[in-house]
Design goal:
48% helix; 13 strands; elongated; single chain; four-stranded parallel sheet
Length: 440
């Protein structure tokens, strides 16, 4: 479908905006809106930033701008207008009448993308719930079938009232049904988490603005075949993989849905079960596209959404590690300066998920953060406690193993102080007796 994309810029809203926040340029907003539209295979025939000095309650835009866009639609034979701004149901209906074309606002566009990207049952449920909540407030649009009475006596209420109420009840019934199914999804996720905690591997979650390269980095680290394309919201459903760090530590890596500015509240609510994986993470990798001139504003959007999820700035210093991705796209001088800058900051690693540059350094930093300070231990596992060996291999780095003639196993290993205390507790008296026999 041929489409026109416009990005309204409200001057009054800009004047009231937070002066300390990182501002997003108008051109970057428009480029992102065009990228979103292309993500659902639309042909963009015209795009423009539209300044709005005084938003109109009925149409948002003034009559002059409406006429300009109408002329552009006629010129390019386009039947769809993407408005990169929230529209009320009345504004959407009035603009469709003025332009004689279908109108989709930012929320509707993101919902459309998510609807196409959802591939699992859980993702489909989440998107459908967000769609229904979005549609519930738009039954005012009065399509033809809403103007007919379903029958019955009396003349109270205008034409279409009973049909609108029936549609609202149907929507509400569907919403309640979906919420129940998603509650079951949430319980299932909690069950999976409780099982993981019984074999407590640390969880590392990848978060970031959409198209920052999370899935490419996920594939680079784990060798998984997750879809990774240069496209907004190329992947939607969360993916978890178990992997071993170079030093032998086993962790679970979680790839989450990409964030975006002005993320619709319907989607935040619907995807909360998915995003809870981030809350449970021991370490959060905030992946940033450093080749994007707008990456500062994108980072602010991601941190704001993390704050909404309950991860505040105090937590951030300990739990969040910034990954400056796509350094391969920079000019050599800019790349060298960025790498130098990252080396002087304690919570930053510069990488290229495509070429692999910096990934080994990132894995080493992940291992250090999750392991803490390692202590050297020399332990003997008695023959009657050899069932502990899998736990020991999962929670420590084995430097030497000696299978002794009496069936005991001697290990030289490195592990954290916390895990060393847990190992002592698990070995207990058996360890002490075996060591005394060995020393004799």
């Amino acid at each position: 479908m041929r489409a026109v994309v416009i990005a309204p810029v409200l001057k009054a809203a800009r004047a009231k905006s937070n002066p300390t926040a990182v501002a997003r340029s108008d051109e970057a907003r428009l480029e992102e809106a065009v990228g979103l539209a292309r993500a659902i295979d639309l042909t963009i025939v015209h795009s423009a930033v539209v300044p709005v000095s005084q938003p109109k309650p009925g149409t948002l835009l003034g009559t002059g701008k409406i006429a300009e866009i109408k002329a552009s639609l006629d010129e390019h034979d386009a039947g769809l207008v993407i408005v990169d701004h929230p529209l009320t149901p009345v504004q959407q209906r009035n603009l469709e009448k003025e332009w004689n074309a279908k109108v989709i606002d930012r929320t509707g566009l993101i919902l459309e993308i998510f609807g196409r990207r959802a591939s699992t049952k859980e993702g489909t449920l989440q998107v459908e719930l967000a769609h229904l909540n979005y549609q519930r407030g738009r039954l005012v649009r009065s399509w033809t079938h809403l103007e007919r009475q379903r029958g019955g006596a009396g003349f109270m209420g205008g034409p279409g009232e009973t049909q609108i109420e029936a549609d609202r009840r149907l929507l509400q019934d569907k919403i309640i049904k979906l919420e129940r199914e998603l509650e079951q999804v949430r319980r299932t996720r909690q069950l999976h988490r409780s099982k993981r905690k019984k074999v407590p591997h640390p969880i590392v979650a990848l978060v970031g603005y959409t198209n920052a390269g999370k899935s490419t980095l996920f594939n680079r680290i784990t060798g998984a075949g997750v879809l990774a394309e240069d496209m907004l919201f190329a992947t939607l459903d969360p993916t978890l993989r178990r992997m071993k760090l170079p030093q032998g530590r086993t962790v679970i890596l979680s790839d989450t849905v990409g964030f975006i500015s002005d993320l619709p509240t319907h989607l935040v609510a619907a995807f909360r079960a998915t995003l809870e994986e981030v809350l449970e993470a021991d370490l959060i990798l905030h992946v940033r596209d450093m080749s994007d001139p707008d990456n500062g504003a994108q980072s602010s959007d991601v941190l704001r959404i993390l704050g909404d999820l309950g991860i505040d700035e105090k937590d951030g210093a300990e739990r969040i590690l910034e990954v400056w991705n796509k350094i391969d796209r920079l000019e050599p001088e800019a790349r060298d300066a960025l790498v130098q800058k990252s080396e002087n900051q304690p919570n930053v690693i510069a990488v290229s998920a495509i070429s692999g540059e910096g990934v080994d350094t990132l894995l080493g930093e992940i291992n250090q953060r999750l392991s803490g300070v390692l202590v050297d231990r020399d332990v003997i596992v008695p023959v009657m406690q050899l069932q502990l060996l899998p736990w020991i291999y999962d929670h420590s780095i084995i430097d030497l193993r000696e299978d002794m003639e009496d069936g005991n196993v001697r290990l030289e290993l490195r592990l954290t102080e916390t895990e060393a205390a847990e190992l002592d507790r698990r070995l207990g008296i058996g360890q002490k007796a075996a060591r005394e026999d060995w020393e004799r």
